[in-house]
Write a structure and sequence with these properties.
Layout (H helix, E strand, L loop, with lengths): L13 E4 L4 E3 L8 E5 L6 H12 L1 H5 L4 E6 L3 H11 L4 E4 L4 H5 L3 E2 L4 E2 L1 E6 L5 E7 L7 H10 L2
Parallel strand pairs: 3-4, 4-5
Antiparallel strand pairs: 1-2, 1-5, 3-8, 6-7, 8-9
């Protein structure tokens, strides 16, 4: 499995968002991007993580970064999850796990993405990377701190 590290070029992808629109990383050139891979919509740990982002979103939002949540769930599940939990970020459907594989966070045996967060700068280079196994919830304050110190 590929493991993406700081300093590498971020792998491109094209995925559907919760509204059925295609989103490509390559279309974000010139913008800072944060990718938050997670296992499943509506699971208790994932809901906790995504609601933490929601509740502290001003720290993420002021960085000017485009923030995307990515899991193997369908765009329909994402739409329901986003509405039910008032998630402020775009959710992308990686139903086959291709993007998660490219970023080194796909758990082949379990068939889902583990928890990975990647910050990509305006030129497409990974400047921050963290990968946690599925049961281990991330501390998003680390990401928020990185964003506020590197805006």
């Amino acid at each position: 499995m590929t493991h993406i590290e700081v300093g590498q070029t971020a792998p491109d992808f094209t995925l559907l968002n919760e509204s059925g629109e295609e989103v490509s990383l390559s279309s974000m050139q010139g913008k800072k991007v944060v990718l938050v891979f997670y296992p499943f919509d509506f699971s208790p740990p994932c809901t906790t993580e995504m609601c933490t982002i929601r509740d502290d979103f001003s720290g993420w939002d002021t960085s000017g970064a485009e923030v995307f949540g990515i899991s193997r769930d369908s765009r329909y599940a994402h739409a329901a999850f986003k509405k039910a939990e008032s998630i402020p970020i775009t959710l992308l459907a990686d139903v086959k796990g291709e993007a998660a594989r490219d970023y080194g966070v796909w758990n082949e045996g379990a068939g889902f993405a583990e928890r990975g967060t990647f910050i990509i700068d305006e030129s497409g280079i990974v400047t921050f990377a963290v990968h946690n196994p599925a049961p281990e919830i991330r501390d998003h304050s680390v990401v928020e701190g990185y964003l506020s110190n590197n805006s």
